[in-house]
Amino acid sequence: MTHQTNRRDFLKQSSAAAFSMALFPSLTRKVAPSDRVRVAHIGINGMGTNHLNWFAKLPEVEVVGLCDVDETHLAKALSTLQTLQPNTSAKTYSDFRYLLDRNDIDAITCATPDHWHAQIAIMAFQAGKDVYGEKPLSYSVREGQKMLKALNRYDRIFQLGTQIHAGDNYHRVVEIIQSGAIGKVNTVRLWKTGFPPVLGPANYQTPPSTLNWDMWQGPAPASQYTPERCHFTYRYFLDYSGGVFQDFWCHIADVVWWAINPTGLKSISAKGGAPEGIGDAPKWIDIDYEFDGLSLHWTSTPPNVPGAEKKGIGAYFEGDKGTLLCDYNTREITINGVTMTDVPEVPITLERSPGHQQNFINSVKSRKQPESNLAYARQMTMPMHLGLISYRLGQPLEWNAHKEKFRHNSAANALLSREYRKEWDLI
Question: Which Pfam families match (predicted)?
Fold first, then answer.
């Protein structure tokens, strides 16, 4: 596929689902080879397996490459792809740099551990490839800044993998709040319950022969191999991620930034508990944020508001006319003491998503940024990083939103980025 030729209008059809105004492309038409998007997947276990399944089933997509530092993941993914696209000629790679060298790849998806997200995306932009990247956007604030600069410089497309963003429920929550039905929102409460697993004691050992442990660590500090630090449970180590909090922030903060776009962050104050075992990401964390005209609170237990106790994750909007409680698939609006699941008089104003992955493919073709684009995702993700910095330092912090740095705190500013291991500083 080229970005200047072979463009097609996407066939759309009216949806008979809720609200009856969503438009979806047909997924049954045949697509000419010249109009297909050639996609490669980097990091293909866990969520990466979902990436492979999602994109391989889209008529416009041909999967042409698979990459992982673990040979067992590669073998599994190739077998899956051969089932989904029986005539595949996709090549496999253990080093993503060789994949990015290919000129016949239009886009990549990235589902590596968090500490690799930024470098892979930036190098993909430099190589002329669009990116569908898993959340969180980056490991640090400075990485997000560099990603946006590179995206603009190389005129690329980026979609953050906030799949819930595509659902009708979030669209409808945004319409209701932006309509003013609950008035001006002055307070938002976000939460996610659940503790990390207790890891350890550390089982230090020689890495499996099928795993390139040095490259898995990449830009992160070097560590002796232990299974607890690798693959799924990496997220409970601050060298690579930020625990349950970092894992779920974007899932639920997304609807807040979409609905009311908080701006003018002034202060962050976090407290939390250390985990048992060898992990060091917080067992629990509570954070208070102050924005211009808005207080936002994150907690690891449901807040003391009606209906929250029933939800393991949620957002509660408090306006001067009413409240709105939501999670991924449900919502409750309370106005004048009456609770309802919808406000029928609020019109449908947002076009419904054709599907999160289809939205990305459409954007690759149209060259128009998708819903969960990088500029939006960076603003939504940044408070997550700042909350973890407050937790790590054990002190409240003041923020200069214009300069994107902390006020009068060199220790906090030092944590906005980190120095990569020399051999893995690729950008």
Answer: GFO_IDH_MocA, GFO_IDH_MocA_C2
